[in-house]
């Protein structure tokens, strides 16, 4: 036989990619993980973005509220600048020289402090007001008006011409020039009787007066912007008092706007002209997270290296003046006070989210336990197994985290991306690592069958005991340090990171302690329960004892979420209570109508008919009552004792018994007498000053009353201050008893109706409006929204953690019910079995969460001041706002955990009963 060539056959390995196979095998689990990671990454990235946005808005609102008068940097030349000869001084004042220096200053300052070139201005102005004696000018008290001569830049760009034309400079203007042109603002022209063509004669120095002809009247395009408002007299004249005049006569102060090249003419007046450069910050370019850098830049410009460079560019005699650094410092104080409170919610919610991600990985590892055991038995290494699981999870988690980051950036644009990217990356990393780490920990050893880890029978290893004791020691030490700092007289601990971590630390301690204590009652009840006749009770107790011993993560998630929710609810409730208390102290009632000259007749009846008004209390207030013993004036209020006492009880301000103010029966005439004085309530300061002796008081209308202090109250509704007297209005003379205020109580009185009833002669204030006014900064409102969102997200993750815990045991419970139904267990008994089995864990989480939340609030209360968050100022009318436990925030989340657990158990029993037992009892199922 001839040799037949046999072609070589190449052996090809058929390998199915691990990641693709696993994703196809469990698409639902992969989609659920992607959704969880995307939502978590979105929330994690959105938090720093939201904080940045409201921080920026808060600083910009602070700059706008402060106004250009405080936020602009004023650079000007001192008087030493005029030492050069007259010819050189004229050159320095010309427009070209001032403009060149302005360009250099903008370039220097713009590197450190963002400036707005459009609103930054420059020019020449007189430093002294010049009296203009022209008789046709307006003279309120027959005093001639005074003017500043100002030669600003770009007047045409910042104004509209109302009449005439803009002034033009004469060629070669010098100190000897006798006539110049000028413009005035429309408000200046109207109030000082100036028209186009008017000539004002400004006094000269050793020469004839400078004739200033008004050629145009201009209207500011943006009167509130820095160009006009940094020096308000440019657009609006003001009234000033004559110095040393006992009659306090007033005169007008205005500004004449010269063309820039006419500035040398000011040298011929006694106005002492100076060059100036007004630098306006660019509000849209400042950020709330950098006030320290901005403050440093302002300090450098005021008296530092930057000022030295400005002097080199403009003049050695340049000085700087601004309050911009104070605005930055105020914002930083507000930010520093609010930030730690937001960090508490963020750390609690972040911890719960991290625990849920770890629980999701643990659930996936438990679901695939048989698969992983088989792989290890067939020789898979821990490194190879962890690498495959990591790749499998990363394919899902990384794109999901990127999607969440993109959604957060799209929803909250304009903030710093760095922290958002870091938060999303941390979310992706944790989601990727949870499954591999859990698998490596559970399958270190190769084994087919694992011992059951019942919580009632398990004995924790020494390694776990050491780890728990270490963690417990660190947590207790940190909390003790925080508590010591919070109750000491040292620095305010509100900025300490321990404050932010306190709920988490308390939750860690509580979770470790409760997991250790949970088996004890189960073991104690196991023997007595075995003697019961029914099957459901003993079986449910035995099932509760068969809970997995690794219950720290679910319990930590629930305790941290409940603690954060209770703490957040207490903070928000405390803020609302502090604002409401401050509002009611400021108004004195639910609404208030004031008319210092006396209320119009019939007003009380009209106010009573306004929707929402329940009661009206008329009060007469005399703010100039004067005790006749040389003491200062003491505000005196005449009230109806019954109505005013009811009002005091309603508001909780200075409550008293109406009989205390009753006028003595033997008083025969209004005003009382030395024998029968009017009873009076007084502030502590007034009560200490006058004691209980009768003393006369002269009222504002010249009449007299005799009063005797019968009680002291810290506050009273109608009067605000440390000194006051309150008497029965029936004992006052008729003129003094005329009502000047109406204090209104009711359920949300109609503001429009009250103002319509009061008319134009009375002022109406509402408690609801005062409440809203205390939210003065986007820092406050933004922090509250972030806080509420963080608490809501934490609650959502707590529900998810609870569902994951129940989902983990769902297959085993379903199989149990199926087996028991074959033994005669009814559906009602199966429902009771699952509910009773779930109750011990639910009650443990609810009771532990309530106790933990209460402990966290009590722990942090000494170191947390809610005043800044509530009213944006430490000078709250209601005093410091303290953190107190809120019963609703403590109990409602805990009850929700119990209700949800019982509901899920009942729903599972119902659903399992509908499906039947065949599917749950298939041969070969691993349970």
TrEMBL record:
Q: Which GO terms describe its cellular component?
A: plasma membrane
What GO MF terms are annotated?
transmembrane transporter activity
Write out the entry's keywords from A to Z: Cell membrane, Membrane, Transmembrane, Transmembrane helix
The main location class comes to membrane
The superkingdom of the source organism is Bacteria
Q: What membrane topology is given?
A: Multi-pass membrane protein
TM annotation in the entry:
30-51, 341-364, 385-406, 418-437, 469-486, 498-518, 551-572, 786-807, 833-857, 890-911
* Location relative to the cell: Cell membrane
* InterPro entries reported in the protein's UniProt record: ABC3_permease_C, Macrolide_Exporter_MacB
Q: Where is the ABC3 transporter permease C-terminal domain?
A: 797-910
As for family, the record states:
Belongs to the ABC-4 integral membrane protein family.
Can you say what this protein is called? Answer: ABC transport system permease protein
């Amino acid at each position: 036989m001839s040799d037949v060539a046999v072609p070589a056959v190449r052996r090809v390995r058929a390998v199915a990619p691990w990641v693709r196979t696993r994703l196809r095998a469990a698409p639902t689990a992969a989609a659920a993980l992607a959704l969880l990671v995307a939502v978590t990454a979105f929330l994690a990235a959105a938090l720093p973005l939201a904080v940045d946005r409201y921080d920026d808005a808060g600083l910009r609102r602070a700059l706008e509220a402060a106004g250009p008068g405080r936020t602009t940097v004023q650079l000007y030349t001192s008087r030493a600048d005029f030492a050069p000869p007259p010819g050189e001084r004229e050159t320095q004042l010309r427009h070209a020289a001032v403009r060149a220096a302005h360009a250099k200053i903008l370039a220097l300052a713009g590197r450190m402090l963002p400036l707005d070139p459009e609103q930054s201005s420059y020019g020449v102005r007189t430093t002294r007001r010049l009296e203009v004696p022209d008789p046709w000018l307006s003279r309120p008290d027959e005093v001639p008006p005074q003017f500043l001569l100002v030669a600003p830049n770009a007047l045409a760009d910042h104004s509209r011409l109302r009449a005439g034309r803009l002034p033009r400079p004469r060629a070669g203007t010098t100190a000897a020039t006798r006539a110049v042109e000028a413009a005035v603002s429309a408000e200046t022209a109207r109030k000082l009787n100036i028209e186009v063509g008017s000539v004002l004669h400004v006094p000269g120095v050793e020469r004839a007066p400078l004739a200033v002809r008004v050629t145009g009247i201009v209207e500011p395009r943006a009167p509130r912007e820095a160009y006009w408002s940094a020096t308000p007299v440019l657009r609006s004249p003001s009234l000033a008092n004559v110095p040393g005049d006992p009659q306090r006569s007033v005169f007008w102060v205005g500004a004449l706007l010269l063309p820039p090249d006419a500035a040398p003419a000011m040298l011929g007046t006694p106005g002492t002209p100076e060059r100036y450069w007004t630098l306006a910050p660019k509000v849209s370019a400042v950020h709330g997270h950098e006030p320290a850098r901005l403050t440093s830049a302002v300090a450098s410009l005021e008296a530092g290296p930057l000022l030295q460079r400005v002097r080199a560019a403009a003049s050695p005699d340049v000085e700087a003046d601004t309050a911009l650094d104070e605005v930055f410092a105020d914002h930083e104080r507000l930010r520093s006070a609010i930030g730690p409170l937001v960090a508490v919610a963020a750390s609690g919610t972040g911890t719960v989210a991290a625990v849920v991600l770890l629980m999701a990985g643990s659930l996936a590892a438990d679901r695939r336990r048989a698969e992983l055991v088989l792989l290890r038995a067939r020789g898979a290494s821990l490194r190879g197994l962890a690498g495959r699981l990591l790749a499998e999870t990363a394919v899902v988690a990384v794109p999901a985290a990127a999607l969440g980051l993109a959604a957060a950036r799209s929803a909250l644009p304009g903030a710093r991306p760095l922290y958002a990217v870091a938060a999303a990356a941390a979310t992706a990393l944790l989601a990727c690592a949870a499954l591999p780490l859990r698998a490596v920990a559970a399958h270190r050893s190769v084994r087919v069958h694992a011992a059951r880890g019942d919580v009632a029978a398990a004995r924790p290893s020494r390694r776990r005991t050491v780890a728990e004791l270490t963690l417990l020691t660190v947590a207790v030490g940190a909390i003790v340090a925080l508590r010591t700092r919070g109750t000491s007289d040292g620095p305010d601990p509100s900025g300490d990171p321990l404050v932010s971590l306190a709920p988490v630390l308390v939750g860690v301690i509580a979770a470790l302690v409760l997991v250790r204590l949970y088996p004890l009652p189960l073991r104690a009840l196991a023997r007595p329960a075995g003697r019961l006749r029914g099957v459901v009770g003993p079986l449910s107790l035995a099932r509760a004892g068969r809970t997995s011993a690794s219950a720290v993560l679910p319990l930590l998630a629930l305790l941290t979420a409940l603690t954060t929710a209770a703490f957040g609810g207490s903070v928000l409730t405390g803020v609302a209570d502090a604002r409401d208390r401050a509002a009611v102290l400021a108004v004195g009632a639910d609404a208030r109508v004031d008319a210092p000259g006396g209320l119009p007749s019939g007003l009380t009846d009209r106010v009573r008919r306004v929707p929402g008004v329940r009661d009206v209390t008329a009060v007469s207030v005399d703010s100039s009552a004067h005790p006749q013993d040389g003491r200062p004036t003491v505000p005196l209020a005449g009230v109806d004792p019954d109505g005013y006492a009811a009002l005091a009880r309603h508001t909780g301000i200075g409550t008293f018994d109406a009989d205390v103010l009753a006028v003595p029966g033997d008083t025969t005439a209004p005003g009382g007498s030395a024998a029968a004085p009017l009873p009076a309530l007084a502030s502590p300061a007034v009560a200490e000053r006058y004691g209980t002796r009768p003393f006369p008081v002269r009222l504002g209308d010249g009449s007299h009353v005799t009063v005797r202090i019968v009680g002291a109250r810290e506050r009273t509704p109608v009067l605000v201050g440390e000194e006051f007297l309150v008497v029965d209005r029936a004992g006052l003379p008729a003129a003094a008893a005329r009502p000047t205020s109406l204090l209104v109580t009711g359920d949300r009185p109609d503001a429009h109706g009250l103002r319509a009833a009061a008319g134009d002669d009375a002022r109406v204030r509402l408690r609801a409006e005062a409440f809203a006014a205390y939210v003065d900064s986007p820092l406050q409102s933004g922090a509250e929204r972030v806080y509420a969102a963080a608490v809501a997200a934490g609650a959502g993750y707590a529900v998810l953690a609870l569902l994951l815990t129940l989902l983990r045991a769902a297959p085993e419970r379903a199989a149990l019910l199926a087996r028991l139904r074959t033994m005669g267990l009814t559906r009602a008994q199966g429902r009771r079995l699952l509910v009773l089995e779930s109750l011990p864990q639910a009650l443990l989480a609810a009771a532990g969460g309530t106790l933990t939340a209460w402990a966290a609030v009590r722990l942090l209360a000494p170191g947390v001041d809610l005043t800044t968050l509530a009213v944006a100022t430490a000078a709250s009318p209601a005093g410091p706002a303290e953190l107190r436990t809120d019963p609703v925030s403590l109990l409602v989340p805990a009850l929700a955990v119990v209700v949800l657990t019982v509901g899920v158990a009942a729903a599972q029993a119902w659903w399992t009963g509908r499906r039947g037992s065949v599917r749950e009892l298939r041969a070969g199922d691993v349970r």
